[in-house]
UniProtKB/TrEMBL annotation:
Species annotation: Lactococcus allomyrinae
DNA-binding is among the record's keywords: yes
Protein's name according to its UniProt entry: Transcriptional regulator
Keyword match Mitochondrion: no
Alphabetical keyword list: DNA-binding, Transcription, Transcription regulation
SUPFAM superfamilies for this protein: Winged helix' DNA-binding domain
Source domain of life: Bacteria
Length: 165
């Protein structure tokens, strides 16, 4: 059985996934774009995927390889390659290789990428705050276990339907 914080995190992730499946990413994107206040930057950010935004946030602490990003974000390396290509084209990240190991490609935030990552992280902090106030403090640990079970079942059914259709 998961502890309280693990359950809260799992519920938040399940609800995030459901919102994104339903095409509500536009609400998050609109919030980010309003916070940027830079017309040129806003135009470029509109072309970024959810994966690209999460790559930016992942690179705030240290430079990472595509394999490390894929593992950390739990997406395919192909998804990282596509998103990173867009991020590189718009100069949100730059790539480099170490002299000792030319096989590994590292991604590094630029100042422009750091600005977008900060706004993206601020949005997630606000969402977490709202979830905490409106959901996590409202329900008991047992109720949250039931909610998590329900959301997990909904996700499993959705996966099954996607395979069938």
């Amino acid at each position: 059985m998961r502890n309280g914080k693990e359950v809260d995190k799992a519920i938040a992730q399940a609800l995030h996934d459901l919102r994104n499946q339903k095409g509500n990413r536009t609400l998050e994107s609109q919030w980010i774009l309003r916070q940027l206040g830079d017309e040129e930057l806003t135009k470029e950010v509109k072309s970024l995927s959810v994966v690209a935004l999460h790559i930016l946030s992942s690179l705030k602490e240290k430079d990472l390889t595509g394999v490390e990003l894929a593992s950390h974000l739990e997406v395919t390396r192909g998804a990282i390659t596509r998103a990173a290509g867009n991020l590189t084209a718009y100069h949100f990240v730059k790539i480099y290789q170490l002299d000792a190991d030319k096989k590994k490609i590292f991604y590094q935030l630029t100042d422009k990428g750091r600005k977008v990552a900060a706004v993206h992280d601020k949005m997630h902090e606000k969402i977490d705050e709202i979830f905490n106030e409106r959901i996590f403090l409202k329900y008991t640990e047992n109720e949250k276990q039931v909610i998590l079970g329900f959301l997990t079942d909904v996700d499993a059914v959705d996966d099954l339907l996607n395979k069938m259709l």
